[in-house]
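Co-fold these.
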Amino acid sequence: MAEEVNDSDLLEMFRVETTRNHAFHMLVTKYQKRVYWQVRRIIIDHEDANDVVQNVFLKVWKNLESFKEASSLYTWLYRIATNESLTFLKQKRANMYVPFDSVSRSLSRKLEDDSYFSGDAIQKKLQKAILTLPEKQRIVFNMKYFENIKYEQMSEILDTSVGALKASYHHAVKKIEAFLKNN
Amino acid sequence: MKKKPDILSDNEVFEKDAPLLHSISKENPFTVPENYFDILPSQIVERCRTENKERKTSVIGENLRLFVLGFKWRVLTITGCVAFICFFAIRMSNRPQSYQAMAQNIPDSLIVAHLDKNVTDISISALEDISAETQENNTRASAKTASDSTGTDQDIIAYLMNNNVTVSDIENEP
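Predicted complex below.
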């Protein structure tokens, strides 16, 4: 199975032209869910998340040959996924000609009639609370709260110090708690 | 010794500062279409292959475009050079006579007269002036008769030139 193949083997196979497509298929199979859910929590809408995920792996395809293994493959993938998600939101904001708040409100409205959201009322409220956070703080919260990613790994992905990440996460928790109390 | 408290662990944070958040299930509330993750890898690999092909085609197309563009520029450059050479050649053929050719067509008397004006050098422009003057005098002299003894100095010079009278002819005249 794809998940059993380690990253170095995948990279070696990718560098050989005859096994490149097969290696890439295995890489996508191995990481698709983690990448998808990370993107989906930021983008909210499934169709948009699907587009972003495809763009992420397209970027991986183009740049994997020159991947220097300074970080783990997963960290690298995660970084690309985060950046692509932020780029998507930025473009959405630019296309809407409205400030940041309205993008969050638009995503919040999507939750109301999203056929791919099966959470109960309190979970919907939590997602709306998360959407009130600034984008980067939202990413930090999602990574810590839902995926329990270690601060050290998060620091590599987001290129932010561990201390700053911890502070950001604790502030996010307080804001969400206040939102849940007041709404 | 009292231990300085570390930054709270996440569970401690939730229980103490965010009891409501702590009570909410962490279950993923989002869903995906059926079999989404089964077909996603193939879709992505296919898209990557298509992008690769398009990129190769566009590189070939770009090279062809550069070649055609380059060819156009080459043709333009060659045409420009040929036009310049032709222009230069025509201009050269219309240039005034060389210094020596010009000097040979001017009678000695005029050259002597010019030199008498304390001119130390005969420049090309001076020769051109003298040559122009000579032509002008020839034109005037042809309109007047040679027997007109009351003519001006210029008329005399014109006469002498038209009849190729040299200094030695005048000196030897009885």
